[in-house]
Amino acid sequence: MLADVALFSPGNIALRAIGRLVSEAESVEDVGLFEAAAVLANGLRSLFNRPDAIKIVERTDGTDRPYWRQVLAYCAAGNLESVLDEYLHHLLQDLRNGPVTGDVLSDLAWNAASALSLRTSSQRALNASDLNGSLSFVPRFALRYGGRRAAGEDARQPEVRQAFNSPFWPFVLASTSVGQEGVDFHWWCHAVFHWNTPANPVDFEQREGRVDRYRGHAIRKNIAARHGASVLARGDGGNPWNHLYEAARDYEGQYGGFTPCWVYPGPAKIERHVAPILLSSDAARYARIKKDVALYRLTFGQPRQEDLLELLRRRQDVNPGTLRSLRIDLAP
């Protein structure tokens, strides 16, 4: 039992994962490591103490042993330590501007803990059975769009986005067109579901560009699939993701500096899911927009881009072979 606590308790896992972020060339006092680990462990504690999480853990475990022992088994089965290794490594890349210090680890731990323990909000809705009354409910992730309380909801938007950009809940994000520009969702997502067919190729590219970015989820899955076993076999106890990116330079001759952080081949791809309404104009629009996106990529960065796009669209002989002959190859 003591071995289970040492290996799989959230506090010990947090301490080991944070400790691996500090390289041999850097020095952080033990008190800094312990304080950062305590903050992260407290965030994990709040997650496992939520009623919905308790029900999931209990049903997954299927035994009548104490809940804390079920949590240990859940952490072991889900390999929480590897999850935190990946999460903290990439969170650190966004926060760090220099060497890893105790303050950097503290900021890192607070950011991760806040994503784990997202606060709820109180909402009221119209009661259809009593138009003079209302229904109150407490969502954790949902945001009210517009209305008198828009300012308060705007303050929660970064918190919800931060939670989605973590390996923990929520796992699905539904958004209006507000989410299609200027925000990143690539950390733990590589699939986009288009609720409607975009009207133009620019919007199409903007939507899918939210999950096709630097060190995105699909890139990391491919790197881990190819080099994960060899990196784990090293057994040196260092930061595994530093070793993975060092190993994933086997395509530099083909892709140059774009690999491994922007391009890395493998089974994981950026997924596009479209559901045009049957017998509607969406199906025809989707067929047209796919062709327009290909032409848009061909004309991207050219002067008078819209005119060139329209000219290519009008030509009847435009096919993949023709496009290849017109393309200027800027590959490294």
Automatic annotation (TrEMBL):
<protein>
    <recommendedName>
        <fullName>Helicase C-terminal domain-containing protein</fullName>
    </recommendedName>
</protein>
<dbReference type="InterPro" id="IPR027417">
    <property type="entry name" value="P-loop_NTPase"/>
</dbReference>
